[in-house]
Amino acid sequence: MSKPRLIAFYLPQYYPTKENDEWWGKGFTEWTNVGRAKPLFKGHYQPRVPADLGYYDLRVPEVRIQQAEMAKNAGIEGFCYWHYWFAGKRMLDRVFGEVVETGKPDFPFCLCWANHSWYAKTWDPNKPSKLLIEQTYPGIEDYEEHFYAMLPAFKDRRYIRINEKILFAVYDPLNIPEPQLFIETWNRLARENGLEGFYFMGFTIKDSLKQEILKVGFDSVLVDFVFGASEKSGTLPNIYIKKILRKLLRKPITIEYSQYSQYLLNNYIVNENVYPSICPNYDHSPRSKFRGTIIVNSTPQKWKKLCHEMFSKVSVRSAEDNLVFIKAWNEWGEGNYLEPDLKYGTQFLDVIRDVLEKVK
């Protein structure tokens, strides 16, 4: 029996860069969409306003230190930073780069390569989205360049490891044309540089893809059940009705938090190389308005119930690999965060600490 090792996904968030100024306009940040969000139906919790940290800027070191202190006090082991690499070009890399360079905050971390193209999305199926930067895979030389660019992080004592191996996740593992070549190249380079190798984790929103991800060479799979729950909620006719309402009446697709949590608990099977991602809240409407998916009625009480049941369920694992990911720490543009807001304060964080204390 063991307590879970909790790792929260961490978004570097938008901040002024040459590309961001060109694509989104000067001054665009994560808070642009968050601040102008509006309720779309009765009882819809928008806008969401950050509390303790305010409308912060992640380029400020003190903010990052405060975040780490909050997470540590709640019992979270570390952050999993979203990492962007486009054939030699790194995007939004300043925040994590400074974490590595300065040694602050003194808080564990790992990386998840968000290997997908970026678009200026219209969120309208009748209007094509504009490609901003394409995710490509030039081959072994690019894999080598990618590895050496991140080697200082991999050698950092704060980097999270599983049985001495570096934990590295990939958002779309099956999008890599030759995943085995990528995996073999990085493991070889790791050994050549005095490291034990990698513990590769493939991320997926489709539970049905677990075996396929393992088959191509990944050591483990991380499953996010939010969209599976959204698709499976209610009867099939109700799903079609929701889609019609979204199109004709400009109503978003909604799912009750209790439905999401029950779907997650029913469908996640404890397996030695399959890990769960749990979600305190989710509301994509700040970015996509009525075309988004929204989990409604998420409360600290319901979050506590999910944490208690999931932590108990995975307690059969060994302490080393009892991983539970939380999505997310600070994705405010998707209404997906643990950080304090004006409505609930620190209650979502307090729940984690309280439940962990009761897990034996």
TrEMBL record:
- Give the keywords, sorted: Hydrolase
**This protein's record includes keyword Protein biosynthesis:** no
Q: Name one Pfam family in it.
A: Glyco_tran_WbsX
Q: Name one GO molecular function term.
A: hydrolase activity
Q: Is Hydrolase among the key words of this record?
A: yes
Q: Which domain of life is it from?
A: Bacteria
Name it.
Glycoside hydrolase family 99-like domain-containing protein
Q: Which organism is it from?
A: Bacteroides ovatus
Its lineage opens with: Bacteria, Pseudomonadati, Bacteroidota, Bacteroidia, Bacteroidales
